[in-house]
């Protein structure tokens, strides 16, 4: 376990929706000695966090933090990004004020990172309705971050100690998946996976597996032609840049990856990737956004309004997300030094 | 472990394609003391089996068996269903003669069961090309068995000690899955699952989970409407007959089933069910055909022509298939006695 370096720029953890489980998991994360591994600050609301700590009897020495201040582990450093009236917050009931505060955490955290005061972004959950209440047009966190950091394209990787999965398509009906696949998108996704494994995960010659779309990867065109028409050409292009194989039968490629055969699997659609990922990493999965100029990981769950304020939330996914963000930062720094 | 009852009708194991791994896994199954748990015979070729035993140095006292003969465990009882010239067989190269023998094993095994001489069918792998060479119009084993036993409809269940999955659609392109789902098919599949869990697996009040088709089970119509249009109405009808729930988000329902929440999951398409099933039961999964008048299980692998004759094949899946067939027979007998 590496010791905390008080002078390293800390990871910025956004508090997420103030009336979801975000504040609780942030407090629980900082109340665990594990936090000493990674310097981190919260971008959130000092008053709201103090109220939640009191309500749930979580001991926390919450103190305002400003850029450049050392992280000692004695206090929970909070960049005070809003000044909500704690008494007006109601668990599970976001309103325009709480939603504007929530989106402000994201904007301010990105600013802190872009200015070099923080090293990476770890996001606690927000709800889509909150973005709408704040008057923003984004369907989710990731789209908002892509806009803020001017990233032309991005991908979702789910990563855990045993399995990494990158999704080509995400939130769309199963019937529309085939029509949404293009050779260009597939190539782009494979290429971003190769680059992320090298730069962010420190793998020199990563092995990327690409799943087919159809049962048995189409069994030579018997069930669907996307493998021949789209996936193989994209694979051939990507093979110029690194080790990549496929299209593999979807029902065995994840088993092979788990057995150590591949460093990541590119999945064609949401459930193809998330069914195996959640079976293996239900508790400790981390969402990593590929393609942003900043390092960003996220907890692998939602605002959980149904249990907010009840003292039932676990910080396990936040802990995994903070650790992975720190590891990506370290790998990028190392790569930068090696190249410099 | 139950002792072998020499007078109980034995399970009939078909040898499968004579030039695939079927003969080897049959011999290895019978050379393991585990065989004493279940009385079983081979429906196959005595000469071919003897030649394979010699070639691979597997000790086996192969003897012809006739209906009514006791199963003692001292010999490997073979119903001599073909008389191939062993010297003409070439590993991995099926021809019309070997293929006609192969389909004959299936026909004769069904006859033995229908006449009450055997209790259940366990099939070793055949290849689709073999069916074609034999001049039969069936795409697979199961369709041939449905024809032989005059079963109007059938379903594929994958079963293991920790997870059971039943598929609504099987070998078709992903893009065609949505169009192939109907409320009637869905109801039928749920109902057959309920009945199989009761009659074949001895569960009095089984809990069936039904997966959605789309990510997050459509998120209230946001990505696809099949959940509302087809799955919910079928669920409502099936709920009159037993405990059934859904449509569940596909990326968490298998995790919940593994944790003990459900006795089986009805999956909408091949990879939705087989990705999680193979992750959990890659080695010991069994294919159970629902809807036939006879009990039928199958190994969970193909003819494996690439390793046929090399002494590399494992009988693990055959062992699991024989055990499951015997267990289904026992449950059906018990149910018959309880009702009588």
Short description:
The structure is a homodimer of 340-residue chains. With 340 residues, chain A is of the alpha/beta class. The first copy, chain A, has eleven helices and twelve strands.
Task: Outline the secondary-structure elements.
The structure is a homodimer of 340-residue chains.
Chain A lengths: L10 E4 L7 H10 L8 E5 L1 H10 L6 E3 L11 E5 L15 H19 L5 E4 L4 H6 L7 H8 L6 E5 L4 E4 L9 H4 L2 H17 L7 E5 L14 H13 L4 E6 L1 H9 L5 E4 L2 H12 L4 E5 L5 E3 L17 H24 L1
Parallel strand pairs in A: 1-2, 1-5, 2-4, 3-4, 5-12, 7-10, 8-9, 8-10
Antiparallel strand pairs in A: 6-7, 6-11, 11-12
Helix pairs in contact in A: 7-8
Describe it.
The structure is a homodimer of 340-residue chains. In chain A, 39% of the residues lie in helices and 16% in strands. With 340 residues, chain A is of the alpha/beta class. In chain A, 53% of the residues are buried. Chain A starts with 10 loop residues before the first strand and ends with a helix. Chain A has a twelve-stranded mixed beta sheet with strand order 3-4-2-1-5-12-11-6-7-10-8-9, sandwiched between helices. In chain A, helix 7 crosses helix 8. The longest helix of chain A has 24 residues, at 316-339. Chain A is globular. In chain A, a hairpin with a 4-residue loop joins strand 6 and strand 7 (164-167).
**Rg measurement of chain A, Å:** 21 Å
> What letter string, H or E per element, gives the SSE order of chain A?
EHEHEEHEHHEEHHEHEHEHEEH
Sketch the major β-sheet of chain A.
12 strands, mixed
* Oligomer type: homodimer
Low-confidence stretches of chain A: none
- Report the average pLDDT across residues of chain A: 94
Helix content of chain A: 25-40%
Instruction: Please tell me what the overall shape of chain A is.
Output: globular
Q: Strand order, main sheet of chain A: write it out.
A: 3-4-2-1-5-12-11-6-7-10-8-9
Greatest interface by residues involved: A-B, 38 and 38 residues
Structural class of chain A: alpha/beta
Number of strands of chain A: 12
The percent range for strand residues of chain A is: 15-25%
Contiguous helical run count of chain A: 11
Distance between the termini of chain A: 27 Å
């Amino acid at each position: 376990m590496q010791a905390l370096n008080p002078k390293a720029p800390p990871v910025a953890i956004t508090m997420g929706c103030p009336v979801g489980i975000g504040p609780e998991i942030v407090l629980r994360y900082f109340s665990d000695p594990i936090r000493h591994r990674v310097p981190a600050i919260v971008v959130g609301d000092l008053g709201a966090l103090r109220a939640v700590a009191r309500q749930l009897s979580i001991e926390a020495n919450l103190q305002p933090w400003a850029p450049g201040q050392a992280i000692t582990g004695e206090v929970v450093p909070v960049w005070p990004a809003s000044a909500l009236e704690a008494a007006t917050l109601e668990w599970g009931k976001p309103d325009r004020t709480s939603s504007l505060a929530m989106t402000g955490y994201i904007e301010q955290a990105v600013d802190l990172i872009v200015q070099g005061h923080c090293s990476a972004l770890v996001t606690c959950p927000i709800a889509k309705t909150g973005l709408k209440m704040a008057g923003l047009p984004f369907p989710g966190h990731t789209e908002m971050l892509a806009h803020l950091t001017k990233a032309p394209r991005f991908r979702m990787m789910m990563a855990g100690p045993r399995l990494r999965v990158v999704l080509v398509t995400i939130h769309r009906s199963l019937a529309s998946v085939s029509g949404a696949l293009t050779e260009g998108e597939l190539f782009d996704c494979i290429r971003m996976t190769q680059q992320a494994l090298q730069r962010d995960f420190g793998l020199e010659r990563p092995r990327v597996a690409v799943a087919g779309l159809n049962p048995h990867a189409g069994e030579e065109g018997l069930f669907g032609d996307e493998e021949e028409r789209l996936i193989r050409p994209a694979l051939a292009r990507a093979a110029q840049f690194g080790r990549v194989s496929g299209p593999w039968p979807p029902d065995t490629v994840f088993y092979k990856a788990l057995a150590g055969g591949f460093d990541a699997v590119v999945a064609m659609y949401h459930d193809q990737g998330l069914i195996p990922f959640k079976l293996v990493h239900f508790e400790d999965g981390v969402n990593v956004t590929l393609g942003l100029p900043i390092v960003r990981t996220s907890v692998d769950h939602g605002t959980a309004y149904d249990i907010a304020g009840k003292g039932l939330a676990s910080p396990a996914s936040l802990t995994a997300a903070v650790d992975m963000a720190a590891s990506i930062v370290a790998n990028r720094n190392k790569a930068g030094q090696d190249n410099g």
